[in-house]
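Quick board copy: two proteins, each given as sequence then tokens.
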Amino acid sequence: MKKTSAMTLTDLGFGAVANDERKRFELRGNILKTLFALFLWVISTLSVSAQKSAVLDAFSKHGIDAGILDPNYLQQPEDFAYDLRQTTIAGGKETVIEAKFDPAGPKDEQWTVVAVNGKSPSKSDINSFRKNQSKPAESNQADIASYRVEKESSDYLVVSYKPDAASIPRDATFMKDCRSYMTINLKNKALEQVQVLNEKPVKIKILNAEKFDVVTKYSWNGQAKRYFAMNQNLNILAKFLGQTVTVQTTSEYSGYTKK
């Protein structure tokens, strides 16, 4: 992988562990675990459970189904099988996980890890992935007072909201300083993407993030009558000990099949 001018987590060493390979490996593993847990929470909060009149008025004006604000529209389905390919660049290394979800299997075995970096996964890889994926979704809501129409043109409607602070789990308190932007195509009346952006620098575990950006793209399935996440990109630009740290994760979803 080509090295950039930005320092990586490995370059930094994170404290007194620069010369201890085992500790650096464990730290990188903890960062990846945090990312997995974060992804589960973010994708569960991209939907909203409250409604604001200004947004509903805009929906009515353009003939958009207000059901788009229903949390069930955007959460990952529990009655569909699908494939996941997740690529994470952190600690100066790239990790690619290929996995499959099948709701027909036992609760603890619904996720099958197919490969890690193109090789058969270890038992530890499988257990770690399943543990993070099995964490229950929080019951999140939007802050009703935060709704607003950001943009309205002949092609697109963009509305935004912030999460209700009381519904944010302790591990993701920084989300109170983030805003979500829903982009709706006015030609086909369909949601295209949801972007989550920090409004000011935020603290994510040991990182002081100047930028936290998550973009999830959706596709409407007429037969299933619901939205499916197709692609999600996470980008974090942060500082640690005065140096730049970058984290990038891309999740690709495919093969949705009703079970």
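And the next:
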Amino acid sequence: MTDPVADPPPWRHPQVERALVAASELLEHGWPEDAVEPLNGALALHGDDPEVLRILAVAFWSAGDLDAARTAVRRAITTDPDDVEGYLLAAHLAEEADDVVEARSAWAAAVELVPSDGGLAAAQLVLDLRTGQVDAATYAAATRAATAHPQHAQVNLALAWLAAREGYPGTAERALVAAVAATPADPWPRWQLLRARERRGSTIAVLADAALVLAEHPDAAGPLGAFRRAVVRLASLGTAFIVVGLVLAGTVGVLVGMVVDDPLPPELCCAALIVGVVLAQVAVLRRLGRALPTGWRPFVGLVRRRVPGVVVVPVLQAATLVAAGVLLVLAGTGAPGLADGVAAAAAGGALVAAMGTAGFLGRWYA
């Protein structure tokens, strides 16, 4: 509801001020029909006044007469074409009437009058996105908004929405990063950024963002689901390293054997496999540690409380590596074939179990 101005224009009749006060009180008490009479009286006495017409439009709107409200606000805009409040009210009334054309025109006029207001620029874009009326005017408005308000959270959220809708996920993610930087205490932009990064498969970034959101909002269901899925993917990554290492070790051994007619000793291939897998997993964990804004202790606590089943996967991965190391020692010392077979079976069984557990958890947290 629009309030009367504190300092009325000197040419305004005193009766108009009394009518504005009376109408405002009637609206405040929920009697919009009764507020129409003093406002019409003020207009009859004083002629068209933009503020009186705006409050009259609000009264008609509250009383359920949307057509009369829109007529009143159009009169207000005609009386004062530079009245931003009139354009905003016209935009809301047009949206209420599903008149997208007039709503877009009103928002564009308001943005043109106050280009420094990032909230208006964002609202203009949101209307186009919400109604699906994305055209050349939308892109022009988005360009102006991005130039004028590069650090405005709502503008960047709208730009991210537009970029995602048009199929530019990288641009959307950059806009969301700017929105998070503008309002670091607001969980909504960070949650949108988390969703965008999850869609792009950025596991480390998802874990870092989800850990930060959950540290402040531990009961947030969406970030918790994203955190669980990302932890499962990270745990599965170690298993993938082991599988790829096995394939590479075997392939290298065969290729070298074909070239020099003397296959590499299996002990050397196994040792290279173990060292490579361990180094790869350490590199991933170091990158995760650098990305975590909350530190390792809260992250480990989140995993322990929220995703305890994932702990099984690294345990099985460790069992696989230990069994492979035992197999390496046995092969190097010339142990009987039965011992080698038992160690190989243990390593293979642990690896298959890790893959199965990771797959089960992935479906469980989907």
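Board note added afterward: Confidence is low (pLDDT under 50) at residues 1-6.
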